[in-house]
Amino acid sequence: MSDRPEITIAGRAIGPDHPPYVIAELSANHNGSMDAAFAIIDKAAAAGAAAVKLQTYRADTITLNSARPEFQITSGKWAGQSLYALYESAFTPWEWHKALFDRARARGVTMFSSPFDNTAIDFLEDLNAPAYKIASFEAVDLPLIRYAASTGKPMIISTGMADADEIAEAIAAARDGGCKELAILHCVSGYPAPPGDYNLRLIPDMIARFGLVTGLSDHTLDNTTAIAAVAMGASIIEKHVTLDRNGGGPDDSFSLEPPELIQLCSAARTAWDALGAVDYGRKSSERSNVIFRRSLYFVKALKQGDVITPDSVRSVRPGFGAAPKHLERILGKTMLIDIEAETPVRLDDIAL
């Protein structure tokens, strides 16, 4: 497998040879307001995000309206709700989607979505969605993955909760379905997730193991983990974005606010720029400082034929003389010319 994988979404190349592709996850952070959804799109575009991602489902396409105990949330952030009630309050109305896609297009930012069943894929196809994201909880839904892959669009699969075998199965399902351009995201499906759970050393292992464009879906509370992931090889960074972390919505509390998204887009690019290449050569910013390195200087005046003694030469700044590594070589040797004190040592002036 190639160690330089690449995919393209809406004309933008994504991979290790390109700046990080930052996805602003809108999720439920509109809190039922289309104006809030528009504002998040606007803020994401202004921050420099490459894409805004939706989630396309209805409560009855993702769960059952059941009173049975297994459909009730008893712990964590959403404790006390049924799955149906949670998703009914959090979903993005399908009748908004076209307007949201149009808004993103007008703002110059790519929009795509996570579909949660086949009807969502059909709906998004009618909107000409440029890519599909499979959420972590759906990474085990191999029929859904195959159906999304059958569109021929690029796909991104989040891997939260999936072990190595399940990731391989999801990848195989995407390939079997016809997906040619595929990426995976390392993810921890905690809301929020502590940085210590992320084990970012998995990212280079995933790149080597699966040979795919690899990124991070980050549910930590700040940008540190995401920026560190870029240094570990992440080509995609996905973060939830909200207008107000204290807005009270189901995802607000673990989402970035717009100023933090600006910082993420900038810092992720800086981290990627800093990776550079394996290059032991002198860097452009160093070249003018070479003259200030240490070198050998005569600290006493010497005549032709004089012996160079330890007290007649020193290693000092600047760097116009012979390199300090030559000190032992010249001690005890004789001068070929007269030399003044405070003159750089030149090997050609010494009988070596």
Quick structural overview:
Helix content is 30%, strand content 17%.
Give a description of the structure.
The structure is a single chain. The chain has 352 residues and is α/β, with parallel strands linked by helices. It has two domains: 8-275, Alpha-Beta Barrel (TIM Barrel), CATH 3.20.20; 287-351, Alpha-Beta Complex (Type Iii Antifreeze Protein Isoform Hplc 12), CATH 3.90.1210. It has helices at 34-47, 59-62, 83-90, 97-107, 118-126, 142-149, 164-177, 202-210, 224-231, 258-275, 327-330, and strands at 7-9, 12-14, 21-25, 51-56, 110-115, 132-134, 155-158, 182-187, 213-218, 236-240, 295-298, 313-316, 334-335, 343-344, 350-351. A hairpin with a 2-residue loop joins strand 1 and strand 2. Helix 1 runs parallel beside helix 4 (97-107) and helix 6 (142-149) runs parallel beside helix 7.
Cα shape: elongated
Q: At the fourth CATH level, what is the homologous superfamily of the largest domain?
A: Aldolase class I
The run of helices and strands is: EEEHEHHHEHEHEHEHEHEHEEHEEE
- What's the CATH topology name of the largest domain? TIM Barrel
What is this structure's SSE topology?
Elements: E1 7-9, E2 12-14, E3 21-25, H1 34-47, E4 51-56, H2 59-62, H3 83-90, H4 97-107, E5 110-115, H5 118-126, E6 132-134, H6 142-149, E7 155-158, H7 164-177, E8 182-187, H8 202-210, E9 213-218, H9 224-231, E10 236-240, H10 258-275, E11 295-298, E12 313-316, H11 327-330, E13 334-335, E14 343-344, E15 350-351
Parallel strand pairs: 3-4, 3-10, 4-5, 6-7, 7-8, 8-9, 9-10
Antiparallel strand pairs: 1-2, 11-12, 11-14, 13-15
